[in-house]
Structures are given as structure tokens and as C-alpha cells.
């Protein structure tokens, strides 16, 4: 039996079918939904408990031959428990979407030891990262051979036909979404005392200093967030820590809707996904540069349209769920 472990309500069918075609093998999705909107410490605790303990049900199964962990923590926890309990290695494990962001204090130390214990074990065969730089950095961080890591571009479901621009609602604003590794104060500072209107969707961001032209939403998700994107004029991704990969999902979502993107430089997006001036605008982590890029979009309609069209075309060719299934399947075959 070959399984895909995900934290979604339902693993995308196009991904599953593409993985099946590419590998020539039948795959079954096991969906342990755990990443719903975070509303407090209790929901966070429940989410991590699922990450840690759900894979135990697979550890003791003897009929599972191959595992693709779409949610990285399901794969990491599977390897952790297998090593701790000294289980025989009967399954080949590929961990997708691997991202490690150090944490502070004793919790950070414990977290790093937990990850290292899993990734240095014989139970993980391949670790897929969403950027090439991370493959090198994580190999060094955890003392793991570089060949255990590989870069596979991230992909998403295309919702652009389901959520279309609605003229009856507010339009012509700048949108920013996401909770991981975002520098929202940078975006806020870049539009302070300007006529730009900004909406930020992040259920974890809190700030007492929000100017009148900026709105922060802590309780918007799913289709509501996509409708905000469909009506947006531009999309901004202000990366906080450049060495930590983040923003792939929202970048591709904006591209799928044909919305021009401005992004701060970082090891992931700017190296492996974005071609500056062609499909997005890259700036340094500086509010003056970010504002100047927004001004360029406002003052140059040809550039605006070019970025919108090229982003959509790039998404269609490289970043659909079908492409992800194909890329993961090819990685699986190449490493047999």
C-alpha cells in the first residue's frame, strides 16, 4: 500500500492522479485535517498533538510500503516514533514541504532536537524543500548528507475561476496575506501617509499602531480571503527573515489570479520562483524601496499588465497541483 499523509480536508485529486500516472503506482490519501484557522493556544495545542500522534497509526501498519508526507510533520513524527520504538524499516518515506525555522529558548532547543532525531534516522529517505538554498542549509544544520534533500517547486489549486473580480465590492487595494515569516510592519510603514489602501489578512498579527489606510483582518480565511484577492489591485509579500523559505503559496495564488506581485528579496522566492521585472518586482527590505515599487505599478500600466500576464502564464505552466504530483513522482522514481 502507498499512502499520502496530508493535513487537508481532502488531498487534491489532480495531485493524486498525477502522482499515480508518473509513478505507475496506486496511492491512497490519508487526510488528518489539522491546519484550520488558529484561534488561540488551545487550537494550536490540538494542531501539534495531531502532528505528533496521528502518524502512530501508520507506524504499526505492516501493509504500507511507500509514504509521501505532504504535511512535513506527519512524516517527521512517523520517523521519530519509528526510531524511538525501534520499528523495522518497512516503508520508504518522502517528506514534502520541509521548512525549519529555529525557535527561541528551551522550546527551540527541544524542537531542533526533535527534528534532528527524525531527519538523521534511516526512516526518512528523501526530504523535499521548497527552495534550493534550504537544501544546502538544512543539510549543514542537521548534519545530514546533502543528497538526502532535493528541491521541488511548490504548487497550488487554481481558484481563479471560482472567485472572480466583483465590481460591487471594494477594489483597487493592496493585499497581503499569510502568517509565516511576514514583516507586516514593513508594509505598513511603506504606505504610511499615502493614498494607498492596504488590507492584511493574518490571524496572528496584532499591532496597536495601524494607520487609517490599513486594515488588518484576524478572522478571514478560505473563500473569503480568495475573494479579497480577486478584487485586489496588487499583492505584497514582505518576508521577515530572508534565509527562511516562506510565501510560495501566496505568490502562486496571486499569480493564478493574475494579480501583480511585489516581494522583498529572500533565498526562496527570489532565487527559485521570481524573475525580477518579468513576473514580479523584487525589492530590498526597505519601506522606501517597497513604496517606489508600488509607485511603478501605479504609474506604468504596461508594466502592470506585463507582470499580471506573465505571472498567470508561469503559474499555468509550472505550478499547478498536476505539476506538483508530476514533480514529486519524478523525484520518487529518480531516487528508487
TrEMBL record:
- Indicate yes or no for the key word NAD: no
Which GO molecular function terms does the record list? transferase activity
Superkingdom in the source lineage: Bacteria
Pfam families per record: Glycos_transf_1
- InterPro entries per record: Glyco_trans_1
Signal sequence segment: none
Q: Which UniProt keywords apply?
A: Transferase
Record-annotated Glycosyl transferase family domain positions: 205-313
Quote the PANTHER family the UniProt record gives: GLYCOSYLTRANSFERASE (PTHR12526), GLYCOSYLTRANSFERASE EPSF-RELATED (PTHR12526:SF637)
Q: What is this protein called?
A: Glycosyltransferase family 4 protein
Amino acid at each position: 500500500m502507498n499512502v499520502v499523509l496530508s493535513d487537508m480536508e481532502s488531498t487534491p485529486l489532480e495531485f493524486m492522479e498525477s502522482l499515480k500516472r508518473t509513478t505507475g503506482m496506486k496511492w491512497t490519501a490519508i487526510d488528518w485535517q489539522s491546519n484550520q484557522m488558529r484561534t488561540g493556544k488551545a487550537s494550536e495545542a490540538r494542531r501539534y498533538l495531531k502532528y505528533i500522534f496521528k502518524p502512530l497509526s501508520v507506524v504499526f501498519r505492516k501493509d504500507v510500503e511507500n509514504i509521501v508526507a505532504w504535511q512535513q510533520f506527519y512524516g517527521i513524527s512517523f520517523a521519530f516514533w519509528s526510531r524511538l520504538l525501534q520499528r523495522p524499516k518497512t516503508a520508504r518515506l518522502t517528506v514534502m514541504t520541509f521548512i525549519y525555522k529555529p525557535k527561541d529558548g528551551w522550546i527551540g532547543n527541544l524542537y531542533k532536537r526533535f527534528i534532528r532525531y527524525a531527519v538523521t534516522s534511516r526512516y526518512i529517505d528523501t526530504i523535499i524543500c521548497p527552495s534550493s538554498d534550504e537544501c544546502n542549509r538544512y543539510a549543514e544544520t542537521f548534519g545530514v548528507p546533502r543528497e538526502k534533500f532535493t528541491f521541488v517547486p511548490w504548487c497550488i489549486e487554481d481558484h481563479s475561476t471560482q472567485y472572480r473580480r466583483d465590481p460591487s465590492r471594494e477594489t483597487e487595494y493592496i493585499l497581503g496575506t499569510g502568517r509565516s515569516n511576514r514583516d507586516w510592519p514593513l508594509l505598513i510603514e511603506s504606505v504610511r501617509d499615502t493614498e494607498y489602501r492596504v488590507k492584511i489578512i493574518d490571524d496572528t498579527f496584532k499591532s496597536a499602531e495601524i494607520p487609517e489606510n490599513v486594515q488588518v483582518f484576524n478572522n478571514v480565511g478560505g473563500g473569503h480571503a480568495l475573494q479579497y484577492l480577486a478584487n485586489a489591485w496588487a499583492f505584497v509579500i514582505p518576508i521577515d527573515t530572508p534565509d527562511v523559505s516562506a510565501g510560495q503559496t501566496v505568490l502562486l495564488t496571486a499569480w493564478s489570479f493574475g494579480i501583480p506581485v511585489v516581494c522583498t528579496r529572500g533565498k526562496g522566492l527570489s532565487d527559485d520562483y521570481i524573475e525580477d521585472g518579468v513576473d514580479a518586482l523584487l525589492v530590498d527590505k526597505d519601506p522606501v524601496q517597497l513604496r517606489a515599487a508600488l509607485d511603478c505599478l501605479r504609474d506604468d500600466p504596461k508594466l502592470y499588465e506585463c507582470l499580471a500576464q506573465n505571472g498567470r502564464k508561469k503559474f499555468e505552466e509550472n505550478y499547478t497541483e498536476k505539476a506538483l504530483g508530476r514533480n514529486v513522482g519524478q523525484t520518487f522514481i529518480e531516487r528508487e
